[in-house]
Amino acid sequence: MTDQSGTPRPMQTITPSPDDPRALRDALGRFATGVTVITTASDIGPLGITANSFASVSLDPPLVLWSPARASKRFAAYAEAKHYAIHILGAEQEELSRHFATQGSDFSGIDWAPGAHETPLIEGCLARFECTPVAVHDGGDHVIVVGRVDRASWRDGAPLLFLSGTFGRFARPD
């Protein structure tokens, strides 16, 4: 950000500490991300979770990653999942993101259908990747799940973005 004269504000500097995780979270929050919902079939039925920890890894072989938090009540189901789908949300899907941030097993009112291996596939997303996990790596208070993309689907549209705890939209320059 800049002040009224257009001069950039001075940077804040911290040394990450478990005593003040909020400071590091605030710094990390300066990186705008897309928003995803990850779905899987579980012992209790379809399961979904909102995540912004998604990245492409490789085109050959086709690999992507995401990172579920160990503290999540849904962690075990995802750490043990044999198949899952990553749904990249469109700008109009903020409510879907908020829903799965808190309501992992409630698919009522959600337009979805079971795909291969009973993986829940949500309709209307910007993109969707049906995956098989190939590796799980330690990532501190998260794990890093690397998956092979078995099938990908997409449509045109604007993405839902997340920055500093706030949802936003991408504006293309004219």
Helix content: 10-25%
CATH architecture descriptor name: Roll
Number of helices: 3
Question: Judging from the principal axes of the Cα atoms, what is the shape?
Answer: globular
What's the end-to-end separation, in Å? Answer: 22 Å
Strand order of the largest sheet: 3-2-6-9-10-5-4
- The average pLDDT score comes to 91
In the predicted model, the low-confidence regions spanning at least 5 consecutive residues are none
For the report, how would you describe the main beta sheet?
7 strands, antiparallel
Give the SSE string: HEEEEEHEHEEEEEE
- Number of structural domains: 1
How would you summarize what this structure contains?
The protein is mostly beta strands. 13% of the residues lie in helices and 40% in strands.
Name a few traits of the molecule.
single chain; 174 residues; mainly beta; Pnp Oxidase, Chain A; 7-stranded antiparallel sheet; 3 helices; 12 strands; 13% helix; 40% strand
What does this structure look like?
- The chain has 174 residues and is mostly beta strands.
- The protein has a single domain (33-163), classed as Pnp Oxidase, Chain A.
- It contains three helices and twelve strands, in the order αβββββαβαββββββ.
- The chain has helices spanning 21-28, 75-79, 94-102; strands at 33-34, 36-42, 45-51, 54-58, 63-66, 84-88, 112-114, 120-122, 127-139, 142-154, 160-163, 166-169.
- The strands form three sheets. The chain has a seven-stranded antiparallel sheet.
- A hairpin with a 2-residue loop joins β2 (36-42) and β3.
- The longest helix has 9 residues, at 94-102.
- The model has no long low-confidence stretch (mean pLDDT 91).
